[in-house]
Amino acid sequence: MDIIIHPEYASLDHFIRKIPACFAQTGTSIYKGRNELRVFDAGGEKLAVKSFKIPHIINRVAYSFFRKSKAKRSYENALEIIRRGFNTPQPVACIEEFKHGLLHRSYYVCKFCDYERSFREFTYYKVSFEGKEDILTAFAGFTARLQNAGIYHKDYSPGNILFTKNAGGIDFCLVDINRVKFGYVGEKAGYKNFERIWGGDEMFAVIAERYASDRGFDVGKSVATLLHYNHKVMVPPKKK
After folding, report:
1. Which of 3, 99, 193, 202 is most buried, with most CB under 10 Å away?
2. What is the per-residue pLDDT for 235?
3. What is the pLDDT of residues 65-91, one digit of tens each?
4. Which residues contact 214 (CB under 8 A, 6 or more apart)?
5. Quick one: pLDDT at residue 209?
C-alpha cells in the first residue's frame, strides 16, 4: 500500500492508514455510483473520502506502471489548483492499495467542502434562473479566470461546481478534479468547456457576455459557440 499524507495532516496518519479496512463500515455515505464518497470525522476534522472503483485489468496495469491513479491525480491536482489561487477542498492524503503487484483500489482524502449549493440549480426543468443573474455572471467570470490561469476541468459539469454567497460576493469550489489539465486554454477549448453545463439559451446569453469580455473574445461569437456546443451535447431532461 502506498500512502501520501499532506504534512499539515500528519497527525491523522493512524486514521488514514485504516481507511481501506474500514471505509465501507464507517463514516456516512453521501454518494454511491461507480465510485463512493463518504464523510468522516477524524480528530475534529470533517473529511471527505472518495473510493475509486477497482479498474479493469488493462487500467490496473496502466495505473500501476504508466499512469498516475485517479486518487494521486486528485491529490496533486488539488495542490496545483490551490497554488494557482483557486478553491478546491484542501487535499489531505491519497492511498493506493495493490494486489498481486497491480493497483486494486485507490482513495482520495480531502477536507469536506461545506458549500451547500451546486450548479445543478441551473437546469432545463428547474424554475427560471431569473433573479440569479449575479450567480451566472460570477460563474462566467470565474470560468474565464480559471482558463486564463491554465486550468481546464475536463469534467466541468453542474455537480462538480459548488458555490456559496457571502458578504464578499460568490465563491466557487471545484470538486472531482482527477481529470483537470494544466496549460494554455485556447478559445475553442474554452467554449467547449461549457458543453456539459445544463441550461437554456437565455441563460447562456448571460454567461457568454461576461465570459467573452473577461477573455477578450467577441460576444456574438461567444453566444453562438456556447449554444452550439451545448445543443450538440446536452439533451433537455424530461420535466419532473
Report:
1. 193
2. 54
3. 778 899 999 999 999 999 999 999 999
4. 140, 141, 144, 145, 148
5. 92
Give domain limits for the chain.
2-111, 117-233
Q: Which amino acid is it at 34?
A: R
Q: Which residue carries 456574438 as its cell? A: 220
- CATH architecture for residues 2-111: 2-Layer Sandwich (3.30)
How many whole angstroms separate alpha carbon 179 and alpha carbon 13? 27
CA neighbor of 188 nearest in space, from 157, 147, 140, 131 = 147
CATH of domain 117-233: 1.10.510
Q: Which residue matches cell numbers 490561469? A: 149
Dihedrals phi, psi of 147, to nearest 5 degrees: -70, -40
pTM to 2 decimal places: 0.90
> For 110, phi and psi rounded to 5 degrees?
-145, 170
Task: Name the stretches of the chain with pLDDT < 70.
Answer: 55, 63, 124-130, 233-240
Which residues, 6 or more positions from 44, have their beta carbon under 8 angstroms from its beta carbon?
A: none
Q: What is the rounded distance in angstroms from the CA atom of residue 75 to the CA atom of residue 18?
A: 18
